[in-house]
Amino acid sequence: MSAEERYNFKEVEARWQREWERSGIYKVTEDPSRPKYYALAMFPYPSGKIHMGHVRNYTIVDAIARYRRMRGYNVLHPMGYDAFGLPAENAAIQHGVAPDKWTWANIAEMTEQLKSLGYSYDWDRAVYTCRPDYYRWTQWLFLQLYKHGLAYRKKAPVNWCPSCETVLANEQVEDGRCWRCDSPVTRNELEQWFLRITRYADELLADLEKLPGWPERVRVMQQNWIGRSEGAEVTFTVEGTGDPITVFTTRPDTLYGVTFMALAPEHPLVEKLIAGRPEAEAVRAFRERVRNQSEIERTAEGGEKEGLFTGAYCINPLSGDRVPIWVANYVLMEYGTGAVMGVPAHDQRDFEFARKYGLPVRVVIQNPSRNLDPATMAEAYPEPGVMVNSGPFDGLPSEEGKERVVAYLEEKGVGRRKVQYRLRDWLISRQRAWGAPIPIVYCDRCGTVPVPESDLPVLLPEDLVFTGKGASPLARHEGFVNTTCPRCGGPARRETDTMDTFICSSWYYLRFADPQNGQAPFDRAKVDYWLPVDQYVGGVEHAVLHLLYSRFITKALRDMGYLGFDEPFTNLLTQGMVLKDGAKMSKSKGNVVSPEEMINRYGADACRLFILFAAPPERDLEWSDEGIEGAARFVNRFYRMVRSALPVLERARGTDRQAALRPEALGEAEKALRRVVHGTIRKVTQDLTDRFGFNTAIASLMELVNAFYEYRSQVPEDRQNPAVLAEAAESAVLLIAPFCPHLAEELWHQMGHTESVHLQPWPTYDEAALTVETVEMAVQVSGKVRDRIRVPVSATEEEIRAAALAAEKVQPHIAGKEIQKVVVVPGRLVNIVVR
RNA sequence: GCCGGAGUGGCGGAACGGCAGACGCACGGGACUUAAAAUCCUGGGCCCCGGGAGGGGCGUGUGGGUUCAAAUCCCACCUCCGGCACCA
């Protein structure tokens, strides 16, 4: 093949990217006359260059967006940057580059790379969370939450990452380590801002039911994280002082089995209980030791249970028993009430604790199949059974007992039904400077004062000094800190913590509906038109973080009257990772494949094609150098297919194609090619509509290309049917457009069209072209394929049966045998069952 | 421990009650070429019998079951991956 016939992807891709940008074909506005489709990829942190994970994510969404556009939808397909965050600050400390400079340089580079991949974004809608015109509204969001009692400040034990020098939310601690830098997290008592996500715990859990378009896996992860459990609160009374100690339990039926009370070492009552007692010093020392343990140490595997007797006793409200009060390291102050009733016979943790410290074990639920003996039990019996040693409740099945005990406690006023969640409020203060400042002022006279909306944004100073030591640069910036109270006008100090960047990303999908709005975060009518997101795509690592936060913010804004829907993301696709040599790509492993290099060597279309073809989107994808070469080869093969047919196609110009495609006008070879063409249209359409079967859709396209070559090699050039070839080539180009947009656009124009291929309607298949006169069917004898027969599609079951029984290779297998049954599956197979 | 997902040729994967291995990668053979690259055609799950055309058996993690028919449905188990986990 001559040099100029080789597909010059570099020139073609650059040319069409320029043209699309010039003509603005991907720009969208609201259009009530068309159905809308909002396709969204999780926007990136501008870390420097894009990696293969990004390419995969955005290629999937781009294919979806392009397909929907051709199907007649008004498609919103935006992109932006989650641009606040620690790496920018670290760069400032290490290299002395200002965080905004560093960030904007990265954004410029990544944008250029994204453009080189030919994604169909409406770039006019890009949002940058670090820009005042965006974070102004992040601050506005905070103020609304504050106004509605959903943002509050409290002193609490919090997760502190010593390396990032900031606190973290619970969701951002994994196995006791910082999600970002992997350092062990410590516990600190600090005054911090929280968002009351727990107020929505119930709805966040219940509404998972409304998300059938989410992967089961993600819903289960959120369910686990929210951790709802039903039980009761029961109040014990301290002997002597009468102080109440309330516990949460899921097993009110075991209340008669309580043999000790266990308090978290940090429990507020501990100090009063031990005051003046000989145990006081030891308990205080124990408390300090536990408090200083890191999350990892405290929850280490096995978890040796430790505790100390306080010297005090309390009274069981049900049995009247006198119960010793202990402090124990396994009781967490953050969950429930920070106090646990110890029932060794029926709770494994209590059991271990009781055995270690010689506390009594009292069986109150009897195992129906094997009698439990407290003296010999080797482990707790947590299963249901029959209540014993429980006064008036003896003989009740334990499940029923739960109800009866709670009812009794409520009647006596010493307990009540309670639903407890594992989910805790979202800690959002960050002691970092490169983030959206929390719009709060502290005034000696007025206290905590929110910045008025009209004063937003609270701007980040541009002259921050990053030393990496001591307090945040924001806290050390006098010009920022010192201000006047918006209420009384007196001297005041600004809050110097910034917001968790997950707040910035918890509402960005709303801003895309109205990104330039200077008067409000978004216009309700525009949001009503575009939202919710029809298809969201991203990594599963945000299953609990970003996706839970966004659901919460959506519900909060809905309750404030700003939104009219309950859930932000109707359908979610969690794409798999891109691996190399079986492992996640990372600099330390040295197995990183650079998208930039691949695009340079093989072209954007080949990269996109390989990534879509190599694995279904939700599965991990193993990068293969040979694989992408194969994809590049196919791009060329496709290009040559159309190029070499252009002279023949020229003959179809201006003729009546529909007339030329009438069945009477076609020979067998033409009909066969048309069958493949229309079969492929059907297959690709199905694969893109009801699932994301990009890999099988592309496989089907490859079969079409193979059939095209076969036709051209088997029918002499002068006898080739121009109308059939034109239909095949046009269909192929339209079908490949979502995957290889440059290739499709180039060929579309070479075929003589002047409008963009991406604005064309999606092809439809012709049922008539799919019909066949005869079908081949397999003939099985007792389930094994022995022969094949060709029968007319119109053949009756009786005729098929006769043909099968007469088939040559079937004879030896049925000769002399009794035919028990013949199963005929028309169009597929015949199974002759013999004995 | 509880919950979820996945195990199919040398490799990525397809089929999700009806002919296992579509499509591609890698590999073998052939054509074109002085040669190579590129391209085009072609072969192939594994084992056994046959010189050959051909024939037979076994095959979707393991063991059972349902069915004329199971990768697909049911039961039990194994392995790997992921989530939660001293949450009362």
Distance between the termini: 61 Å
Strand content: 15-25%
Structural class by sheet pairing and helices: alpha+beta
Integer average pLDDT = 91
Low-confidence stretches: none
Q: Percentage of helical residues?
A: 25-40%
Cα-based radius of gyration, to the nearest Å: 35 Å
Total beta-strand segments: 32
How many helices in DSSP terms? Answer: 28
Largest sheet: 7 strands, mixed
Shape: globular
What does this structure look like?
Helix 18 packs across helix 19 and helix 22 packs parallel to helix 24. The strands form nine sheets. Strands 8, 9, 10, 11, 12, 13 and 16 form a seven-stranded mixed β-sheet that branches. The protein has 835 residues and is α+β, with helices and mostly antiparallel strands. It is 37% helix and 18% strand. Strand 24, helix 17 and strand 25 form a beta-alpha-beta unit. It has 28 helices and 32 strands. The chain starts with 8 loop residues before the first helix and ends with a strand. It is globular and about 110 Å long. The structure holds one RNA strand of 88 nucleotides.
How are the SSEs ordered, and which strands pair?
Layout: H1 9-23, E1 36-41, H2 52-70, E2 74-76, H3 86-95, H4 99-116, H5 132-147, E3 151-161, E4 166-168, E5 173-174, E6 177-178, E7 186-195, H6 201-206, H7 216-226, E8 228-238, E9 244-249, E10 260-263, H8 270-274, H9 280-292, H10 295-298, E11 307-315, E12 322-328, E13 339-342, H11 348-357, E14 365-366, E15 386-387, H12 398-412, E16 415-421, E17 426-427, E18 429-430, E19 440-443, E20 447-450, H13 478-481, E21 482-484, E22 491-494, E23 498-499, H14 501-504, H15 508-511, H16 524-530, E24 535-538, H17 545-559, E25 572-574, E26 578-580, E27 583-584, H18 595-602, H19 604-613, E28 621-622, H20 625-650, H21 657-660, H22 668-689, H23 694-714, H24 722-736, H25 741-750, H26 767-770, E29 774-781, E30 784-792, H27 797-806, H28 811-814, E31 819-825, E32 829-834
Helix pairs in contact: 1-25, 3-4, 18-19, 19-20, 20-23, 20-24, 22-23, 22-24, 23-24, 24-25
The chain binds one RNA strand of 88 nucleotides through helix 7, strand 9, strand 13, helix 11 and strand 28.
